[in-house]
Specification:
Order of helices and strands: EEEEEEEEE
CATH superfamily of one domain: Nucleic acid-binding proteins
Strand order of the largest sheet: 5-6-7-9-8
CATH class of one domain: Mainly Beta
Low-confidence stretches: 1-33
Protein name: CspA family cold shock protein
Keywords: Cytoplasm
CATH topology of one domain: OB fold (Dihydrolipoamide Acetyltransferase, E2P)
Distance between the termini: 30 Å
GO molecular function: nucleic acid binding
Subcellular location: Cytoplasm
Strand content: over 45%
Mean pLDDT: 77
Length: 102
Amino acid sequence: MKFPGVFPVFRRGVHRGDSGSVQCGSRHCPLGRFNMASGTVKWFNAEKGFGFIEQDGGGADVFAHYSNIATSGFRELQEGQKVTFDVTQGQKGPQAENIVPA
């Protein structure tokens, strides 16, 4: 199935459209505010379903929610685990989407 104006990017779940935005996960992120990154899980509470990722190269820690982990089955991250992810602006600061364990 083809969608006019939608072009695949080299990462699953991310598409660029004619509207000047990038679809990352279930949201649209304006171009220029979308950054692919890598980092290390600082901590993750599996019972509560969230934690934080420390970005490689510095910068603010990034909020990680279990619903944004791109794996099947039980979604959790381990402290010290390497991950790649897309950085978006959440309600309270930077958040990770399309989190992929390295």
